[in-house]
Amino acid sequence: MDMEYGTFALTHKRFRVAKARTPVAARKAPRGTKLSYTLSEPAAITFTIYLDRKGRFKGKTCKVTLKKGRRCVLATKKGKLTRNAPAGASTLAFSGRVGRRALKPGRYEIRAIARDTAGNVSKPKGVSFKIVR
Question: What's the pTM value of the predicted model, to 2 decimals?
Fold first, then answer.
């Protein structure tokens, strides 16, 4: 049986980083956003956060230091969060921090992959967001 997502969304796609770290259990965060997702069965879900930086192609490689060339976006991994989730709808309060480290202002993408106990892996789902000062 394949793992499937029903939904994957953020309540706020533009937010400030909270003072507290991202909680392990879902609860209301004073700043930040909430990730909401639906799984077809219980699974461990990994959220990987990438910083999206504008760049230019040099051949087939995207470089952020170039001034000329076709435009591209370079995704740099900034961290990940792993949580166990039940089947059905779930939420995760995301403070804009990975551990104690706050994400700097910029455009990011958060991608989620779920793995059930049988080893089935879902297709990755992603959503973009922006951290503001």
Answer: 0.83
